[in-house]
Amino acid sequence: MAHIVPVRTYLMVGLALILLTAITVAVAYVDLGPLNEVVALAVAAIKATLIVLIFMNARYAKGPTKLFIFMGLIMMAIFMVFTMDDYMTRQWTLFTQP
Amino acid sequence: MAVPTLALPQKKNYINAGSGLKSWLLTTDHKRIAILYLISISIMFLLGGLMAALIRMELLTPAADLMGSDDYNRLFTSHGVVMIFGFLIPSIPAVLGNFLIPLMIGAKDLAFPRVNLLSWYIYMVAGVMVLWVLFNGGLDTGWTFYTPYSSSVSTSEVLPTTLAVFIMGFSSILTGLNFIVTIHTMRAPGMTWFRMPLFLWSMYATSLIMLLGTPVLGITMLLLFAERVFGVGIFDPALGGDPLLFQHFFWFYSHPAVYIMILPSMGVISEVIAAFTRKRIFGYRFVAFSSIAIAIFGFLVWAHHMFVAGMSIHAALIFSLLSYLVAIPSAIKVFNWSATLYKGSIQFSTPMLYAMGFLGLFTIGGLTGLFLSALALDVHVTDTYFVVAHFHFIMVGGAVMGYLAGLHFWWPKITGRMYSETWAKLAALITFIGFNVTFFPQFIVGFLGMPRRYHTYAPEFQVLNILSTAGASILAVGMILPIFYLTSSLWSGKRAGKNPWGAAGLEWETESPPPQFNFDETPVVTVGAYNYGPVEDKIG
Questions:
Q1: For B311-370, what is each residue's pLDDT tens digit?
Q2: Could you give the residue ranges of the DSSP H alpha helices within B138-230?
Q3: CB B341 within 8 A of CB B277
Q4: Residue B246 to chain A, least CA–CA distance (Å)
Q5: Cβ separation of A82 and B318 shorter than 8 Å?
Q6: H-helix or E-strand containing B262?
Q7: With an 8 Å Cβ cutoff, are A94 and B313 in contact?
Q8: Of B101, B128, B156, B426, which residue has the fewest beta carbons closer than 10 angstroms?
Q9: The pLDDT of residue B67
Q10: Where are the domains positioned within chain B?
Q11: What pLDDT sits at residue B12?
Q12: What is the pLDDT of residues B182-197, one digit of tens each?
């Protein structure tokens, strides 16, 4: 039987998502240098976590479902690590140019 | 219109459980949905085959005879999109997987029957969109949609095609999800993981890729859409993007997609070889885990498609090394199938002929994959016909041969009728010969330097191209023959008993065609898969 989440929780999370969206928009108008991306990505990550945990009921899920969600995160990690490996090492050469 | 009588005088089965178009279009029976998929993907296969025939006709001579470069670009792109997304990816999972998974685990249906029907409708919507594109200008980017050509240069139908691929992905995700949940939760009493037929292990591994990889294809298509429509700089250098990022995204799904095509075939081959050697598959657990290993390694090798694209040498070295690793679980399977043949009571029925074809052709396809994993050699053969030959050995010699092996093996179960063994064996032989004559010369002509995706070529390549086109016409006969003898078997085929091959497995213990809910009573499993005793015990 699926866990029943009170409507109040959904409303609170919905409100939090709207507030976080407002923060993203507001920060876009402030020049924080390289921190702009950091803040935007951090806010997006928090929003995604809230959606997965509460709206998608992952917080109340059983073993196999949690395992598959975790595997999704592993997939993302594999993609990012290997792609960044390409980007971070493009200037490397095996031999020193004469 | 005459309706095939199938097994009408027999007791109620899934075919005569309801009548009329509505009962088919609104069905939630996994077996009927499998039939819907069978019809849909067969249409796609015929269309894709027709395009292949046109390609081979154009390449009969070095000059441009039938079409110009623009039309040729559209033709090979359509061939790729239709064959890969419309046929190969759904083929075995959506038809044989849908039909057999509940039967093999002793369940009444899949875990989510309505989601199963939804996945077919989603497939149909996307399929109609692809067909619309075909008849309204087509697409000229190649099935890989490489940027920046697709995002900022091409004037062909990029948006509807990417949208269709995006939509089709959901069909795949839902099918994979359904299979995983079904295998986890609906196995009959006694059907432990290591008693499952190896087809189910391969379907499970395939479903993992469908579930975890397909969303990335969806994201890639959306990003391409965003760049093309809204000018968001992601892949176009002029907008601050990086074209190689598209290739990373695209191949992160599309390389594992090769395993979506080949893993189910490997599952079929395990079933067929066990049945026609009357032996348990040698090294059952190794074969089972090698499917999972292929699914996992498959996610770590994608950038071997990008060795000459400007990727860093460091990353290329890592991807080259990892690509070799996939050979290990693949070789485990091939060696274990070969070991199963040893001292088996081998019977060369039609499914076994296709399985033997698979074994040889997949091995050649796999070994030439090692050539392409080697960085230095890959530079020489990238974008030549060597690559075309390699992946056709995997996708046609492997995936399609496996599909045909499975279709012939389970056809009596699906329809309750036997087909003509003589015609079927002839078709298998013609297919094998036609395939080799078509694609083996392409290894040579590619190694000699003939590039792919051009409608004209240097005159010295003509002999090999004539051979390839001649082979294609033989292959076409081999592909068309089953349409006739399988269809005619619906009317005139001998009735199949429960178990015409004397095979082991729960699906052979129920009627042919199976009743609406598969089993009259939930079966209890007490022995492992491939429990072969004397032949006479089982044939019925």
A1: 999 999 999 999 999 999 999 999 999 999 999 999 999 999 999 999 999 999 999 999
A2: 158-185, 198-230
A3: yes
A4: 11
A5: yes
A6: helix B243-277
A7: yes
A8: B128
A9: 95
A10: 22-231+243-537
A11: 87
A12: 999 999 999 999 999 9
Alpha-carbon gap: A97 to the closest alpha carbon of chain B (Å): 15
In the structure encoding, which two tokens stand for residue A93, read together? Answer: 């050469």
Length of chain B: 540
Q: Is the pLDDT of residue B385 over 50?
A: yes
CB contact under 8 A, A85 and B245: no
Whose tokens are 């249906």? That residue is: B109
Residues in chain A: 98
Which residue numbers of B have CB closer than 8 Å to A's CBs? Answer: 180, 184, 208, 211-213, 216, 244-245, 248, 252, 299-300, 302-303, 311-315, 318-319
Q: How far apart are CA B534 and CA B146, in angstroms?
A: 56
The CATH code belonging to domain B22-231+243-537 is 1.20.210.10
Per-residue pLDDT reduced to its tens digit, A28-63 = 999 988 899 999 999 999 999 999 999 998 988 888
Closest chain A residue to the Cα of B216, Cα to Cα: A76
3-state DSSP assignment of residue B316: helix
Report which DSSP code applies to A52: I
* Structural element, H or E, at residue B374: none
Give residue for tokens 């006969």.
Answer: B477
> What is the rounded (10 degree) CA torsion for B305, B471, B427, B410?
10
Question: pLDDT digit string (tens) for B369-384?
Answer: 999 999 999 999 999 9
Q: Is the pLDDT of residue B6 over 90?
A: no
Tokens of B143: 């099935």
Q: Which residue has the tokens 């990417």?
A: B162
